[in-house]
Design a protein that fits this description.
This protein is mostly helical and 156 residues long. It has four helices and no strands. The chain is rod-shaped and about 135 Å long.
């Protein structure tokens, strides 16, 4: 059986439920940011210790006996939701980084263009000034002319 679609790309599935992608993206970033904190790890650790103590120490409260299958199921559900949320947050960050890199490249190109323009302008000013008589050169020429005039007036 021959497939005409590209198998390297996942198929786009349309969802029937309308939702705001931007709001969901912000929520995923918030969750991913919180799950990466020491506070989250500490709270989770305390809850696990309380869970284990209640299920081991108090026989009347044992809703999840020793292999703690329900606790493992809860961790699996948490991981099943956390992984896609973290990936979504990373994708959004990658998109922001790509936009920022494009902006940086455009600014760098404009800055380089401006620097090259200023270098050309400076070179043209230097060339124009190379043909201009300086005050010292003018003074020397005037002194030489005055000396020749003095010589001529003395000789006449």
């Amino acid at each position: 059986m021959k497939r005409a679609e590209n198998l390297a790309r996942p198929r786009r599935r349309t969802t029937k439920l309308p939702y705001d992608q931007e709001a969901f993206g912000r929520l995923s970033e918030t969750v991913a940011r919180y799950m990466g904190t020491a506070r989250f790890l500490m709270i989770q650790s305390v809850l696990v210790v309380i869970w284990v103590v209640l299920n081991v120490a108090f026989v009347a409260l044992q809703w999840d006996p020793y292999p703690f299958i329900l606790l493992n199921l809860m961790f699996s559900v948490q991981a099943a939701y956390a992984a896609p949320l973290i990936l979504l947050a990373q994708n959004r960050q990658e998109t922001r980084d790509r936009r920022q890199a494009e902006t940086d490249r455009a600014v760098a190109a404009a800055t380089q263009s401006n620097a090259e323009f200023l270098a050309r302008e400076l070179a043209s000013v230097r060339l124009a000034l190379s043909n201009v008589v300086t005050v010292d050169e003018l003074r020397e020429q005037l002194d030489s002319l005055i000396a020749r005039l003095d010589d001529k007036t003395k000789s006449n």
